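Purpose: get a first structural picture of the assembly so the mutagenesis plan has something to point at.
Setup: two entries, given in the order below. No constraints added.
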Amino acid sequence: ETGVTQTPRHLVMGMTNKKSLKCEQHLGHNAMYWYKQSAKKPLELMFVYNFKEQTENNSVPSRFSPECPNSSHLFLHLHTLQPEDSALYLCASSRKREYNEQFFGPGTRLTVL
Amino acid sequence: GQQVMQIPQYQHVQEGEDFTTYCNSSTTLSNIQWYKQRPGGHPVFLIQLVKSGEVKKQKRLTFQFGEAKKNSSLHITATQTTDVGTYFCAGPDNAGNMLTFGGGTRLMVKP
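Result (structure tokens, whole complex):
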């Protein structure tokens, strides 16, 4: 409903698995973001892409690998995750990187066993 | 680095009572945004304040930006069960590269 879709909506994976989260925005925005939201912490920014270029990497472990093939699509590749990585992963987009309101997708609920 | 704090963390109110959440930034903000996240949902943009001392209203919601542009508040008059959710404030960092979100205030309304 916000113009930002995420798949899958739920994901259960083992620590040795490799999976990918997908985000697509239909709003014509130029900036896209990955956030992590857990019960204990507020919205944690992970990555920022502006015009397909990564502009921020907020000290995220290398087991999370983002990919932005174009300004409408954003991926988060996951490998060898830990149980503490279980969280809601939210994708968002904005018209431009600075200041604009962000439109969030519904999120992917990730559980790492 | 920039820090954005919100209080209270949780608030239980009886339906019909008023509610206020406060947001404080460690640095001066060029603007502040407010988002609402319903239980099981995702954050949804509510409003953006830009000017010092600005006050904006959306029906029963009143948003205020402090004179020093370091704090903000959201006040809900006569809460309803539909107001349930977590309210986040967010402000851009000095470079304008990203939004820093506060920890949120979770509002629970008893019917």
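DSSP finds no helices and eleven strands in chain A.
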